[in-house]
Amino acid sequence: MFQIWCAIGLFIVRLDGSPKYAMWCNVLPGLLNVILDYLFIFPLDMGVRGAALATFLSCMTGGVMVLVYLVFLASDLRPAKLKISLTSLRLTLRNIGYQCKIGISALLGEATMGVLMLMGNLGFMRYIGNDGVGAFSIACYYFPFAFMIGNAIAQSAQPIISYNYGLGERSRVVSTEKLAIITALICGGAVTASFSLLPELMVGLFLDTHSEAALIAIAGFPVYSTAFVFFIFNLTAIGYFQSIEKALPAIIFALLRGVIFLVPSFIIVPKLLGINAYGLLSLFPRS
After folding, report:
1. Which of helix, strand or coil describes residue 188?
2. Tens digit of pLDDT for each residue in 11-43?
3. Residue 206: which residues within 8 A CB-CB, separation 6 or more?
4. Other beta carbons within 10 Å of 119
5. Nearest CA-CA partner of 236 in 224, 248, 223, 254
6. CA dihedral of 90, 96, 100, 103, whole degrees rounded to 10
7. For 169-207, how does the pLDDT look when each residue is reduced to its tens digit (9 = 90+)?
8. Residue 283: what pLDDT?
């Protein structure tokens, strides 16, 4: 509950013009979680129960920080008393529905990771076996980091774009989106370069680089990483369309990335190109 409240509240804090406070609402609970995990699991020997308690306390801390800001520190966006008239309730339901409509693309963006992992595991198990699944698992560990970069760029630009869009300041909307796109391309290029130039180092954090699964991952990472530039750009574009109230294009671009292109690719491309479609995997014999 606290985690959901904190996630929603952080959007309000940023919209109120306090991005640094929103950052600390993430940083401090994260640090607290690490400290309490160590304290409860090792010195206090509480095991899994201690880890769960540490997570609860850290999430509660983030939620309380957001609540304190909204009640005492907010400059414009403060909690308001809920009106119980029929008109007010009807308008509230309308606004909730409108928010859900705009937020569908964000939901689909999160679901993309699940679809990628499911289809990838099924495909690698069918064509490569356990070593292929092991190699793909390493890629899945890194995929959320690329998602976080794209999501951070989109969410950073959204309050500025939506605020100026509401004011009719089109020039500021355009300039902000240009900056977001440039940032997305630079960050996407940096991530792609890291995967392409340092695959042994990145895979070596999880596997012995001489194992067959690691060799598969090392060979596939440069191919896999070419998608990150487009992936981060896609997230930035979706955030822009959400900010200017264009829910349909945002949903379409999320579906194109997550289902319409991804699922058929995992099914059709290996049949056309063989296991090379999974990243030069034919260089390594199956055991």
Report:
1. helix
2. 788 878 888 898 899 899 989 999 999 999 999
3. 138, 141
4. 17
5. 254
6. 140
7. 999 999 999 999 999 999 999 999 998 999 999 999 888
8. 39
